[in-house]
Amino acid sequence: MSHVWCDGLGNPSANALPKCQILRLNRCLRSMPRDMESGELRFGPLSVDWTRQNFSLHPERSPPLFWMDTLCIPVQPQHAALRTRAINQMASIYAAAVQVLVLDAELAQCATAGAPAAQLLARIVCSAWMGRSWTLQEGVLARECVFQFADAALDPVHAWCLGGARYSRARPSASATPIAFPRADDAAETAVYVALYNAFWDALHQDWKSSYRRDPPPRNWRSGLGGSKATGRDYHRNS
């Protein structure tokens, strides 16, 4: 998890959070979009992920596993050396995570249902989380960055592209709601969406860490699902 401490999820005195916050985090984790790495199959009560050679109970039957600095980095003075070691390992932790859930207090107050995609992107790009170097580096390192809103968790990289919905293997979150993308005949709204998507994409340095492209070529019988990942033309900030 990635968050801004002043939003209320930090604790300088102990590796603990109020029970209500833990329950909220559990709800958020259970409603996240499925990650794009899973090769998961289900057999009865078991969930089998062949890509990781992992056998476990269905996610809804077992508690989700997560890492959060507030709970995992020691804060007591007697553990100063261990704290330093844990902080130095944060980059590798975020880089190795399957997904990083971004918790921003302002985004958590905004609903996605029926909202314009450009508005949601603007909220992400202008969020306190995006404006702090410490948290932004966690997003840059993350393979998949998911943003928690009031009613849904969004992964704009894998669910959206410059043309709107990506129509790929990306699975929506359990609480996903319809998003309003620009109409093809609305040049002004499309230009705003494209500029915001490019700003978001570039801020997270997606070009060097993702096989998904910001502007995938159209799907056809040759490309199939791969069309959403194949390299298309690049849009830059001045396009």
From TrEMBL:
Pfam families given in the database record: HET (PF06985)
Superkingdom: Eukaryota
Annotated stretches, region: Disordered: 215-239
Chain ranges of the Heterokaryon incompatibility domain: 61-105
Annotated coiled-coil segments of the chain: none
PANTHER family noted in UniProt: HET DOMAIN PROTEIN (AFU_ORTHOLOGUE AFUA_1G17550)-RELATED (PTHR39596:SF2), PTHR39596
Protein name (record): Putative het domain-containing protein
Native source organism of the sequence: Botryosphaeria parva (strain UCR-NP2) (Grapevine canker fungus)
